[in-house]
UniProtKB/TrEMBL annotation:
Its main location: other. The chain crosses the membrane at residues 45-63. One of its GO terms (molecular function) is lyase activity. It comes from Coprinopsis marcescibilis (Agaric fungus). Residues 65-100 are annotated as: Disordered. Residues 515-705 form the Heparinase II/III-like C-terminal domain. Keywords: Membrane, Transmembrane, Transmembrane helix. It holds the Pfam family Hepar_II_III_C. This is Heparinase II/III family protein. The lineage of its organism: Eukaryota, Fungi, Dikarya, Basidiomycota, Agaricomycotina.
Length: 795
């Protein structure tokens, strides 16, 4: 069982940051970028000019401030410096007097794209629709966009003066703060902020956020059924982190006053039950997130809170959290089910909260509970939480649950490191834990995640910033460089986990394709660029239908497809977490699988006889890649023989079939996609794909229109009578109905092909209508059986 807050909003946020800029043009090969429909003339014509002007500023600013060795970039430095100044001086020149332009409502807290460039960030803006970074186009610079490294002579953090010879979770450093950001880091921060444009931007954003929280009303108690008060807890934690950061930087005690007022508010009579269950231990995530937040507050405000205030926080922690933690570990409390065999976010978040709170009060805790728990939580998290990563890096639950699990893991790891001098193996008891950074990079497409399975609750204090900690601690600077461009990087943990000595471009030398073969979560990631938001991206999965902490769908063969800056084949997301049967079981007849979004019908795969896939699937996969890597440029020129393919034998996922195989490949220098199915079924079956596009079907062709772009889809040499149809994204004719109504899927259609029983091959060709690409530039691939697919089988 696994009860979390239901939320149908995926990770992507809707608050637009900047207008999209038009981006690169990559003739003669590779996808060419479209002009987006509906942009103001200023955006169409103004942004590219700023980019040209300010690219030099990126070079000048970064190289200037970091004093790296920069042979070969002399013209970048000089011309860039001058251009940067110029850009600053008249950056608004192209903007209509009344327009808000690209700067309005920005989420990066620096006013305009010009300022961003002058500040030296690589991504010049954030895409409005998907909140993904937008990089300047056509910039080649072998020094700036070098392979990721930790630069030897760059300004970075001093060494921690606390270096115990024999670290022990019960022996904390002598000074405070002891959690996540010790004094030596605060002391070094101001200088690092001055010399690093990312830290500078995040610092501003955090102050802006803290100011906004301070002028917001106190958190409103909301018990959301089985999902508890998790949103409340995470929102509270988000605020405490920001107030704590603002206080320690500014030394303005008004931040402490507000933090304490919020602390009193969430412990006041009437905020939840007036007994030990105030923080809802029955749904222990809520308790754990409150505990983490109280621990941080106790530690970061330790020098300004009065003794009475600190006693009150300790008392609250003991009564509402740590006592229940002891019940979990020593008294077999049923709400402690997450303690055994849970390789997922529950174990990470619950142990993380108990650990942070215990470390915060250790030495000042009369109850003894902090010590008791620290003897238990660390080993438990190592055996459970740290095992939620497969041998090749996939997160066991789902790509969205990765955020919750890795945030809990990173907070706990960082707190142990700073407070006691060791992580006790949190990062390497599973020797492949670091690979989950690679997983995250590849599971993120040009528009959004390949977000199969459940999406999870609201994020609030949950981010991808573990990428900084993992990248730094395991020497993977590409994780650091990737995450620093993301919109969720601007929060307090980043200020201390980020290593400003990371230099280069995350994409430099990075393969476009990767295949994750661990049997539990087999999947493939293939793309045409790491830096073009209009790039082609195909991701597809097989894997086990069970064993994902009941966050999976019955979705072997499921895929997503991005091109032209939008998502053509996508996911429906979480079901309704409040439905009583939603997490009860993952057996074949479980209620969970009968909801449309979890049923095979709700996936982009083959459904046989309108029935669900077999929960005991065990598919096999094969794949190949040309090994194409991106280089030292924000553009990539794709060689004509560049390709990738992935096939699966997914027969085991079906009843009533002798053989079901699926393969997908990139064609024509990664501009087209072929999806091929070879099905031998004893019942009729359907090929299904969910799309937000407006679909027009004519026999064996379908025209998809979305966000002003077009995708042509054709069914090649179709079996007799097979053609496209458009169906509603709902449970038509599925058996048997679930206990509660399905959620609606507004705007989503199913592009479908209905096929009679028998042995059939379906070949579906996706042709994104790239600007500048003529009809004659598209290829029609030869008909090659999946068994014969290889790198050169379709040349
Ligand atoms: C920078 O130097 C390169 C190589 O010498 C040259 O091709 C390019 O035109 C120069 N760019 C500018 C802006 O001077
Ligand atoms: C923090 O501030 C940024 C920039 O103003 C904004 O985009 C973002 O939504 C804020 N975050 C929260 C959680 O309020
Ligand atoms: C961080 O941001 C705050 C708020 O804008 C500012 O007062 C402070 O000077 C910044 N810190 C540094 C080191 O720039
Ligand atoms: C439709 O668009 C929404 C919002 O961007 C997205 O969350 C969802 O995954 C999309 N659905 C499909 C089937 O692509």
């Amino acid at each position: 069982m696994s009860y979390q807050q239901y939320d149908n909003t995926p990770y992507k946020e809707s608050n637009a940051a900047y207008a999209e800029s038009s981006t690169g043009f990559l003739p003669p090969r590779g996808p060419v970028a479209p002009q987006k429909r509906g942009l103001s003339p200023w955006i169409k014509f103004g942004v590219p000019i700023f980019i040209v002007v300010a690219v030099g500023a990126v070079v000048g600013g970064v190289l200037g401030s970091r004093k790296s060795s920069t042979s070969g970039t002399g013209n970048g430095t000089t011309a860039g410096g001058a251009a940067g100044n110029n850009g600053n001086g008249n950056g608004n020149g192209g903007r209509p007097a009344t327009g808000t332009g690209a700067g309005s409502g920005n989420n990066l807290a620096i006013a305009t794209a010009t300022d961003l460039l002058a500040a030296g960030r690589f991504a010049v803006t954030t895409n409005t629709q998907y909140m993904v970074p937008v990089y300047p186009t056509s910039v080649t610079n072998s020094a700036l966009f070098a392979a990721p490294t930790i630069a030897a002579n760059a300004a970075t953090w001093p060494n921690d003066p606390f270096t115990p010879a024999n670290p022990n979770p019960l022996e904390v450093r002598p000074d405070r703060p002891r959690l996540i950001a010790p004094t030596y880091k605060w002391d070094a921060l101001a200088n690092l902020i001055q010399s690093d444009p990312y830290l500078q931007g995040w610092n501003e954003t955090i102050f802006g956020n803290a100011t906004a929280y301070r002028s917001s009303p106190m958190i409103v108690y909301n018990m959301d059924g089985e999902s508890g008060i998790l949103d409340n807890a995470r929102e509270f934690k988000m605020r405490i982190k920001a107030y704590g950061y603002a206080y320690r930087v500014s030394r303005n005690t008004e931040w402490a006053d507000r933090a304490y007022a919020e602390i009193e508010h969430v412990t006041a009579p009437g905020f939840g039950p007036d007994d030990d269950t105030k923080w809802n231990p029955g749904h222990f995530l809520d308790t754990a997130e409150y505990a983490a937040a109280f621990g941080i507050a106790y530690d970061w405000f330790h020098d300004v809170f009065t003794d009475d205030q600190k006693a009150y926080i300790r008392q609250s922690l003991v009564q509402y959290a740590l006592g229940h933690g002891r019940d979990v570990y020593e008294n077999g409390a049923t709400f402690g089910w997450w303690r055994t065999g849970i390789n997922g976010n529950w174990n990470c978040v619950c142990n993380g909260g108990l650990t942070i709170a215990s470390l915060a009060i250790l030495g000042e805790d009369d109850s003894g509970l902090a010590e008791t728990l620290l003897r238990l939580t660390v080993d438990n998290a190592k055996e459970n939480c740290a095992r939620a990563v497969t041998e090749d890096g996939s997160w066991m639950e789902s790509p969205n649950y990765w955020y919750f699990g890795t945030t809990g893991h990173a907070e706990m790891t960082s707190a142990l490191l700073t407070a006691t001098g060791s992580d006790y193996g949190m990062l390497d008891i599973n020797p492949n834990y670091w690979r989950t950074g690679t997983f995250h990079m590849y599971v993120y497409g040009p528009t959004s995640l390949f977000d199969f399975g459940d999406h999870g609750p609201n994020k609030f204090s949950t981010t991808a910033n573990c990428m900084f900690l993992i990248g730094d601690r395991t020497n993977h600077p590409e994780f650091i460089l990737h995450q620093r461009e993301q919109h969720d990087a601007a929060e307090p943990w980043s200020m201390f986990w980020y290593n400003p000595a990371a230099t280069g471009a995350f994409w430099s030398g990075l393969a476009l394709d990767n295949f994750f073969d661990a049997p539990a979560v087999q999947w493939a990631s293939m793309r045409s660029s790491w830096t073009d938001p209009n790039a082609l991206y195909v991701a597809i999965k097989a894997g086990l239908n069970q064993d994902h902490q009941t966050h999976n769908d019955l979705d072997v063969g499921d895929f997503v497809l991005d091109a032209l800056g939008t998502r053509w084949a996508g996911e429906l997301g979480s079901g309704n977490y409040l439905n009583s049967d939603f997490f009860l079981s993952q057996d074949q007849d479980a209620g969970r699988w009968r909801y449309y979004r979890k049923h095979t019908a709700g996936q982009n795969t083959i459904m046989i006889n309108r029935a669900n896939q077999n929960v005991e699937s065990a598919p096999t996969v094969q794949h190949g890649s040309s090994g194409t890597v991106q280089g030292d440029s924000t553009d990539i020129s794709i060689p004509s023989d560049s390709t990738a393919f992935w096939t699966t034998d997914m027969t085991s996922a079906y009843f009533e079939a002798t053989s079901v195989r699926r393969g997908i490949r990139l064609l024509n220098a990664r501009r087209q996609v072929l999806l091929q199915d070879e099905v031998d079924a004893q019942a009729d079956f359907q090929w299904r794909m969910h799309t937000n596009a407006t679909v027009t079907v004519t026999g064996t062709t379908a025209q998809l229109e979305l966000d002003g772009e077009t995708m042509s889809v054709s069914l090649l040499d179709a079996p007799a009578g097979a053609e496209f149809s458009v169906l509603p994204a709902e449970r038509q004719g599925l058996e048997p109905a679930p206990n509660n109504p399905d959620q609606e899927n507004p705007g989503v259609s199913v592009l479908a092909i209905s096929v009679p029983a028998g042995s059939h091959t379906l070949r579906v060709l996706f042709n994104p209508q790239w600007p500048g690409m003529a009809a004659g530039d598209f290829v029609t691939p030869p008909n090659v059986p999946l068994a014969d697919w290889g790198l050169r089988s379709h040349d």
